[in-house]
Amino acid sequence: TQLLEQSPQFLSIQEGENLTVYCNSSSVFSSLQWYRQEPGEGPVLLVTVVTGGEVKKLKRLTFQFGDARKDSSLHITAAQPGDTGLYLCAGAQLTGANNLFFGTGTRLTVIP
Amino acid sequence: GAVVSQHPSWVICKSGTSVKIECRSLDFQATTMFWYRQFPKQSLMLMATSNEGSKATYEQGVEKDKFLINHASLTLSTLTVTSAHPEDSSFYICSARGAHSLGNSPLHFGNGTRLTVT
What per-residue confidence (pLDDT) applies to B103? Predict the structure, then answer.
């Protein structure tokens, strides 16, 4: 089992604040994806990072893949209530197998 | 974009009965589908990988005789929870990748099925 630990597990912040979510593992992944899930729905893909050290921006969200491809971070600038949800990182195996290993999840609540 | 439809979205059943959940890829062919289980406020736990035309691969600790998976076509996989018990109550989610997708390509998720066993 390739564990992906996310921190923090829960985060409650005021609207307008910045935050960072971390996704760490001792395993190397060929790529890492970030998803956001709202209650009662399936996860929705936010981004895929493939290259070690890669940084991708999606509006107020900045994603980074660690140089060694073992970890990743998600930074949200000026959080808004619409950012509330469960954020999941997921790593793809080096072997090219089809399945993803999901992180432990970070539940974000942005208070208006 | 690719759409995965999961049905039903919620179901309540009595203990001892069986429940079938369907996962369909609507606009693409999926040789592989994945079934996950999610407890409240927790992450997704992979239960099994469903391969079209062959037996599913179950993760450690998942009873294959209790969670029957059938992937009879390139667009449909079903998960049947047999002899359901209250502890089987959970949110079940399926996902799929296109037939020629690589490991890095994203998964397309259904909207999940909330199962409550009374």
Answer: 56
User: Residue A44 and residue A58: Cα distance in Å, rounded?
Assistant: 14
Beta bridge partners of A71: A24
Q: Which of A30, A88, A107 sits opposite B103 (nearest CB)?
A: A30
Residue with tokens 């942005």: A110
Question: What length does chain A have?
Answer: 112
pLDDT interval class at B40 (50, 70, 90): confident
Closest CA to A74 of A35, A30, A112, A26: A35
Cα distances from B54 to residues B23, B73, B96, B110, in angstroms, run 17, 10, 16, 22
- Cis bond before residue B8 (omega within 30° of 0): yes
> Token match 């203990």: residue?
B15
Residue of B nearest to A95 (CA): B103
